[in-house]
Amino acid sequence: MKVKIVEVSPRDGLQSMKQIVPTEMKRKLISSLYSAGFDEIEEVSFANPKLLPQMADAEEVYMKGSALVMNKRGYDRAKKLGVDKINIVFSPCEEFNVKNMGKTRSEIVLMYKTFMDKVPKENVRVYISMAFGSPYSGEFSRRKIESCVRDARMFGNTVVFCDTVGVGIRQDVEMFADISKKLGVKPALHLHHRGREEPAISLVKTALFHGIYEFDTSLTGLGGCPFAELSGENLSTQTLIRHLEAWGFDCGIPSEALREPTKISAEIQKFALKNPGHEIVC
């Protein structure tokens, strides 16, 4: 069975770093990931540079992958650059929607309707942040998640259920798989954790048993959401590939192909530690 890994370290992995990583280092990382065999990489976010300064050089960094947009201004920047694959986001948690985007979910969906109608649904991945639960709102009912997926499928064929704060359980994954089948969308998972990857790997195993074969990961676990309290690290690309190989699944990327990207990731982290003067507090 083929498993798809979407590498998100250039965007989700770097976005919360307070030290601004040089453009050339970001492009070097992205190039190494394509050389390793990744078909889909989320490279940048076209966000307000004042709110997310790490992504201020998105136009210079972008190469050929996907990009996150959160408003019409970001969308226009992406399309001017020729970006075809667009990622959008909203949450069942209204407090997070306001913290992250300054709007309620209904306002966000209405906003997307004004410019996403021209983007083919097969080119859009819709992220449902905090789908597994929120430190602000707690757990969400099946009815609430179904409502989010109904909104999501207006824009894209793939819905990414995000465990933004690392609280997911097996029953959540089973519910997401069932809702996705019922509403005719392709499910994917984006998993964070709080220092131990075993719970996230357990959720992956459950997902595979229930027909979910697409996962976001970040090289060496880089990342976390700068607008979410308690957001942990991303599930590591290396960890997931190692487990998929042991379980007999094919993701098209052998572990040894990650040596050069891992080296560059280490260089970026070393740069961040040695250059506190580059820190920008937003």
Kindly describe this structure.
The termini are far apart. The chain is α/β, with parallel strands linked by helices. Strands 1, 2, 3, 4, 5, 6, 7, 8 and 9 form a nine-stranded mixed sheet that branches. The protein is built from eleven helices and nine strands. 49% of the residues are buried. The model is unreliable at 226-231 and 277-282 (pLDDT under 50). It has one domain: TIM Barrel, CATH 3.20.20. It has helices at residues 9-13, 23-36, 58-61, 72-81, 94-101, 105-113, 142-152, 170-183, 198-209, 237-247, 259-274; strands at residues 4-7, 42-46, 66-69, 85-90, 124-128, 158-163, 186-193, 214-217, 233-234. The longest helix is centred in the C-terminal third of the chain and has 16 residues, at 259-274.
